Amino acid sequence: DALRVTRQTLQPGKKLLKCYSCKLDFKKSAYNRTNGCIGQPKNFTGQTPHLVDPDYLVTCGVKDYYCKVERVEVMNVLVSLSRECTDVCHYGCRPKGFGIHTETCTQCCNTTGCNNGYPKSQAATTACKTEFFIHAALIFVATLLPSVM
Questions:
Q1: Contact, 85 vs 66, CB < 8 A?
Q2: Which has fewest Cβ within 10 Å: 19, 83, 94, 144?
Q3: How confident is the chain (149 residues) per 10-residue block, as mean pLDDT?
Q4: What dihedral do alpha carbons 105, 108, 113, 116 form, nearest 10°?
Q5: For the chain, domain boundaries
Q6: Cα separation of 90 and 67, whole Å?
Q7: Is residue 62 a contact partner of residue 10, using CB atoms and an 8 Å limit?
């Protein structure tokens, strides 16, 4: 999927958006799953889900049209998470790195408190596509070898 850049204008008479606003950097501080910024709207353990703390809900500025949540993982380990109001949002996942895989995923929305989840990863999809292209390249090279020898 290509990244989508979204931009809109506030309609006259429309109320200001409210979004969760907080930032965590696990390179600087230890991971704490009960931190109010993390939130866990999907319950994988059968326990009551831990939602984003309502104290982080803020009123956005006049030019902030989106709520954004961005997650950065290195080798499938969460290293940072941010939630904020924004005027422009780049939706999607951006993988980078060779050997040390880094993925930044961003989710954009425009309703009150909608940035309480996690952007979905495309790591599995990316890995499958990469494996397919490597396999196809090897087959192509193998078909050329008999004609070279």
A1: yes
A2: 144
A3: 51 81 91 83 57 94 96 92 96 87 94 88 52 49 56
A4: -20
A5: 4-119
A6: 11
A7: yes
Pick from 109, 103, 116: nearest CA to 21: 116
β-sheet with 4-6: strand ranges across: 4-6, 89-96, 102-109, 66-74, 77-86, 22-25
| Of the candidates 59, 18, 57, 67, the residue with the CA atom closest to the CA atom of residue 36 | 57
- Tell me the pTM: 0.69
DSSP-derived secondary structure for 37-103:
TT---S-SSSSPP-PPPGGGEEEPPTT--EEEEEEEEETTEEEEEEEEEESSEEEEEEEE-SSS-EE
Contact 82, 48 (CB under 8 A): no
What CATH class is the domain 4-119?
Answer: mainly beta
